[in-house]
Amino acid sequence: QVQFVESGGDLVQPGGSLTLSCVVSGYIFSAFGMTWYRQVPGKERELVASIDSTGYRKDYADSVKGRFTISRNNRMSTVTLQMNSLKPEDAAVYFCNRQPASSTWGQGTQVTVSS
Fold first, then answer.
1. Distance between CA atoms of 32 and 77, rounded to whole angstroms?
2. Cβ atoms of 53 and 32 closer than 8 Å
3. Tens-digit pLDDT profile for residues 63-107
């Protein structure tokens, strides 16, 4: 069964950095693109960054361009989100999912940006 396990969230000061990881199981990882989303209470889930199955094509939300980098390791079935120059508005629960999204979601990982 499809499973996404996110980790790496933490409390960080504005301007700081974090690396989020997502371990995937239950399907052929290398056959699907992957997406990182984030959600804050009371708001819809927001697409942050996506990467195609090969790792060559990457797309980012305007709000994170130049600060976040998505990557993947098809051997390890993992997708990573490197986040730099974090802002308070980046605080959210971050989730990963495949493209197109599975109905199964992980528990997410909490990112808090505060001084």
1. 11
2. yes
3. 999 999 999 999 999 999 999 999 999 999 999 999 999 999 999
